[in-house]
Design the sequence.
């Protein structure tokens, strides 16, 4: 018998701190698989965010650094400009990229830095205890919106990908989801494209990944997958945005 | 003819593999690992297709597939 699915070399064989069913573990594996496939492990530098994925550097077996909350893209810009031969990517959640780091995100995209961004959108703040994120859906209950998010009080979900797609310097934006095996395969393809763009010096590439947070959505993992499919995708449609 | 192996110490019992296995060959073990999770087990009945859907969906990379 031949092994047809194995643990990627770039992912350490340690147990992660993520909750059962969390999409972060899945996305970490996709990134590790892509880095193995492209053969860029020795020249990759990852920037971990602040949020649930803050310990990503403990799980990936390649060079990683940490940035202050929301500043991952500023740090990435510096690293890429000093070491253009390296492959630099940030891995950020919605709190990091779309709340405290909105400024850095927009300006880095507007400068068209040759970077890859993996944006994990799970519509909630995981690390701090399930508070409302900018991407929380209307009506979605979180610890800070116990009656559900209301447009007149908390505004509408922020669509970062659509927002950034208006900028002329942005090369590639795609929104993918991790709710089924088919979608995970598509997500891997999109993330690989974002890395390939950087290898080809194409410019700023961002992949928004709709990912489950069963703990703070208050549902088991398989229902969280159905919730992405039936509710979340209606607000955040999948596909190539730019 | 295919089979999977599950790293029971890393398994957190999210049960996504059970949800996505088209043949229903993965079951809850009823036992606990060191982290206190009710991990899953592969029931090999010779029906495994090696479709890798369980491994693709496992958030903790516990599953390896042989075919």
Sequence:
């Amino acid at each position: 018998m031949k092994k047809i699915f194995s643990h990627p070399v770039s992912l350490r064989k340690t147990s992660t701190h993520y909750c059962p069913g969390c999409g972060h573990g899945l996305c970490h594996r996709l990134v590790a698989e892509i880095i193995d496939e492209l053969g860029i492990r020795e020249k990759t530098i990852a920037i971990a965010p602040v949020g649930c994925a803050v310990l990503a550097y403990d799980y990936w077996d390649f060079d990683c650094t940490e940035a202050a909350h929301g500043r991952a893209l500023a740090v990435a810009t510096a690293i890429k400009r000093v070491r253009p031969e390296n492959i630099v990517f940030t891995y950020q959640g919605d709190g990091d990229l779309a709340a405290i780091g909105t400024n850095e995100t927009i300006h880095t995209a507007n400068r068209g830095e040759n970077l890859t961004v993996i944006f994990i959108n799970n519509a909630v703040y995981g690390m701090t205890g399930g508070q409302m994120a900018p991407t929380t859906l209307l009506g979605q209950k979180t610890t800070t919106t116990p009656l559900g998010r209301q447009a007149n009080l908390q505004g509408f979900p922020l669509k970062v990908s659509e927002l950034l797609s208006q900028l002329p310097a942005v090369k590639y934006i795609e929104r993918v989801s991790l709710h089924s095996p088919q979608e995970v395969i598509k997500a891997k393809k999109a993330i690989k494209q974002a890395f390939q763009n950087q290898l080809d010096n194409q410019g700023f590439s961002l992949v928004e990944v709709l990912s489950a947070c069963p703990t703070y959505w208050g549902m088991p993992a398989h229902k969280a997958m159905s919730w992405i499919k039936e509710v979340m995708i209606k607000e955040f449609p999948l596909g190539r945005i730019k | 003819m295919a089979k999977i192996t599950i790293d029971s110490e890393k398994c957190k019992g999210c049960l996504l593999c059970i949800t996505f296995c088209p043949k229903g060959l993965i079951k809850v073990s009823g036992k606990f690992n060191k982290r206190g999770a009710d991990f899953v087990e592969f029931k090999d009945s010779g029906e495994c297709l090696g479709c890798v859907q369980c491994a693709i969906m496992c958030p903790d990379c516990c599953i390896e597939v042989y075919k």
